[in-house]
Amino acid sequence: MAKPVSIIGDIHGQYDKLVALLRDSQLIDEDLAWSGGDTQLWFTGDFLDRGPDGVMVVDLVMRLQREAAVVGGEVCSLLGNHEVLFLGAYQFGKQHVGSMFALGWLRNGGIMKDLEYVTAEQIAWLKDLPAMALVQDRLLVHADATFYTEYGSSIETVNQTISALLYSDDTGEWHQLLDSFSERMTFYDMRHDGSHNAESFLKKFGGRQIIHGHTPIHYMDLDLTPDTIRQPLSYARNRCLNLDGGMYLGGNGFVYTLP
Ligand SMILES: [Mn+2]
Q: Ligand 1 centroid to 107 CA: how many Å?
């Protein structure tokens, strides 16, 4: 039998809310130690920025990853655009040419404290996060966007290309990637080609459903407010699931377990 898979959307520095979510779903115990057994826990990326405790979130997730591995569990994450923004500010922020990375990061909710406290080990861990993953028959990506196709035609090549970029000093490529991440809602039903985009994206990379974060659910369903969102938004004829509960916008988030 396949391991249970749980997925959590964009955290954006909401450490206390993340702890509450993990406790309520019994993935951690009272002492914040992994208690999820052989569960495979995924995050959709965007651990950092906008909220106060991004580096604490990364620290917790890295520790849970080590603890889970000991008991046959797994903790994994996708790369979000805020990881790229943060890494750019870290890598180039002190150079003259890099000042615009720091500015762009701050304008997008960068928290100076995170840049002060982040360790070299955490930076390396962030750079190695995959941009996409196939989990059971679901295609996990951070953004509801198709720009990923510009980085390769398979999950492996996309992940390799983007990871190599993050280890390079090519500021043009970094900017291009950040620009690409401004794409969103590409699969949304309100677009005439939304479902079609979802179908062809799945056809290219595999899987029967796209699971993503990046765009708060209440931006797509205007009848919802973040404080009431407790489950993913299914759209594009259930070809897509949005897991971003808007945790930095008043939402408590939720843990989605694959049925
Ligand atoms: Mn994002």
A: 14
